[in-house]
Write a structure and sequence with these properties.
Layout: H1 2-7, H2 9-30, H3 35-52, H4 54-80, H5 85-99, H6 108-128, H7 138-146, E1 148-149, E2 152-153, H8 162-167, H9 172-200, H10 209-229, H11 234-257, H12 264-280, H13 286-298, H14 304-315, E3 318-320, E4 326-328, E5 335-336, E6 342-343, H15 358-366, H16 399-407
Antiparallel strand pairs: 1-2, 3-4, 5-6
Helix pairs in contact: 2-3, 2-6, 3-11, 4-5, 4-6, 9-10, 9-11, 12-14
Amino acid sequence: MDTIASLFSFITTPVSWVIVQFHSVYGSLFGPDTGWAWGLSIVSLVILIRICLIPLFVKQIKATRAMQTLQPEMKKIQERYKNDKQRQSEEMMKLYKETGTNPLSSCLPILAQSPFFFALYHVLNSIASNDTIGVINERLLESAQKAHIFGAPLAAKFTDSPEKVEALNSTLLDVRVVTAIMIVLMSLSQFYTQRQLMTKNVDTTVKTPFMQQQKMLMYVFPVIFAVFGINFPVGVLVYWLTTNVWTMGQQMYVIHNNPTPGSKAQAAYLERLSKHIAKHGKTRNRRERAIVKAIVAKGRDRNEYERKFINGLNKAGLAAQTDGIVIKSENGADAQAEDGTTTTTAAPKRQQPKRQPKSKRHHSGAAKPAGEPTSLTKADDPQDAKPSGNKGNAKPAGNASTRSKAQSGQRKGPQRPKSPSKK
């Protein structure tokens, strides 16, 4: 352990120096040997490190989302070449190259954080083991060992013997109660962080083994923290609890303001954004304009929640433009359609006149003057033009029924023969 610590001395020395600087500030307020001074120094160090690592966290989020997007394509490749591992690997590398993603990108931020976390853990473990490290000399080491957090010494463990705990001016009951509560809080915070990631910030349309793996880790990580937590000093538990709480808060902020496309968090965010835009009639900042611009640019590739967002703006009399701004539209003018095209208000379509019922057509035909031809009689052969004295050409009286049938809507003249019925 000393050999490893000497290799990381370039990190452990700055970390111990930062702890001492925070201790000098909090020591002047709460006393140099109090648990508040040393506990808040550890908390402040964790917060400082996590703030410096925010850019890496952002890269990790982007890399994770990129890998989630590729999961359906990766699954297809695995099923297509399940009997040819070499071809499967070649197609995977080709997919990574075409999309510009790297499967190690999501792991690199974690690897970059590990030296800082290891240095902090080793500093706290050295304090618990009564060893000087970095700029922490014997006087500061003695002061840190006297510090108690809720009655438990900073250097005490859950598995310590009663004699060792009494040497630190405490009782075994106090140490185990405090450490048990911190272990439970540490495990719960880890579980909640992973659970909100799986239930709110994951694309629900994608079902891949990656999601099953993440769901399994949601239950495995808290158990790991609980098992190893009983061997950590109280100061290290303060470090882990602070880290988990920071991660939980950071994850909640990302889910609330920058959710994964297709997730439940995106549906909630777009609903809030739609209500705000409908109320004020515009986007309020650059980030919202960038989100609206990205949704408009997707066109037909929008997911269900994004289409609902665009349709909600259209119903409110607003139109999302390609540059991300939102303008008012009259009667749906310049509204964004679901396929991404811009529609304008066109002239109303010409309506075809409705066909009148047969009874009304008969009535309108009978109301016309006697000399005017109707649609039921031929104009070139009116009945009034026939000579009255031509008895030879007179039709029998039975033709009156034929004329009545013609007036009732049947066309005069030879009828088209009916097609034989198909048996």
